[in-house]
Amino acid sequence: MDFGIRGKRALVCAASRGLGRGCAEALAEAGVELVINARGAEVLEATAQALRDAHDVPVTAVAADITSEAGRAEVLGAAGAVDILVTNAGGPPPGMWTDWERADFVAALDANMLTPIALMQALVPGMMERGWGRVVNITSQSVKAPIPVLGLSNSARAGLTGFVAGTSRQVAEKGVTINNLLPGIHDTDRATALDEGVAEREGISAEAARRRREATIPVRRYGTAAEFGAVCAFLCSAQAGFIVGQNVLHDGGGVNATI
Ligand code: NAP
To answer: Does the pTM of the predicted model rise above 0.90?
Structure first.
C-alpha cells in the first residue's frame, strides 16, 4: 500500500532502538525524510546509517536528551519544519506507590507528558499553517488498563492522553491529526529489562518471566517493533486523515476489554 507520504519530513524521537526505531524504519520505507533522536550518539548514528542504506532517504541524527529543554531545543533546531512528529522517550521505572516522592512524579511527568506536549506546541502550528500534519504519540496500554508497578507511567500518560483528547479536536480542521499509539508488550530492550526485574524480585529466570508474560497475551508472543512501526506509518499516512484523537492499542489482545 502506498501511504501517500513520500517526500514528507518527520521527526521521530527516541528512535535509535525499540519502538521508536520501528516507527522510523516504517516511515523511511514509505519514503519519508527523517530526523531521528536518542541520547547515545553511537547507536543513533548506526541506526541512521542503516536507515539510509536500506531506504535511500535522507536521515539526520541528533544525539540529545529529548526530555530536557536544551535537548529539545537542539532537536527542534535540526528538525525545522516537519510534516510528521512521532513523540517517544524512555518509560519511568517500576516501583511501589508508597516510595515515590514529588521529584519522581515531576521527572515522569516531564518525560512522558510535558515533553510530548512541548514538541506538539513547537511543531503543530507550522503543520496547521501548511494545512497538513500527523502526530503520533507513543504511550502505553497502561492508559487503558493500569499496570500497578508502573504507577509513574500510568499517571504521566493519563495526563498526555487528556491533553491529546481535547487538542486533537482543536487542530483537526487544519488537516492535522493527533493520535496516540498504545504498545502492549513488545520485544525491545525495555521489555527485557522489565522481565529481568521480575526475575530478580521473584528468584526465577528471565526466560521464565518472559514465558509467563507471553501466556497473558492472546497471541502468546511479544509484539515486534516492525509491526508497531507499520501501524504508526499508517496513522501518519494520507489515508488516515479521518482518524483523530484516538488511542490505538497494539497489544496482541492483551487488554481484556470489550471496547
Ligand atoms: P527501548 O527499547 O528501551 O528504546 C528506547 C529508545 O529511546 C532508545 O533509542 C533510547 O536511546 C531512546 N531514549 C530513551 N530515553 C531517551 C531520552 N530521554 N531522550 C532521547 N532518547 C531517549 O524502549 P521501547 O521498548 O522502544 O519503549 C519506548 C516507549 O514505549 C517507552 O516509553 C516505554 O515505556 C513504552 N512502552 C514500551 C512497551 C514495550 O513492551 N516495549 C510497552 C508499553 C510501553 P538512548 O538510551 O540512547 O537515549
So the answer is: yes
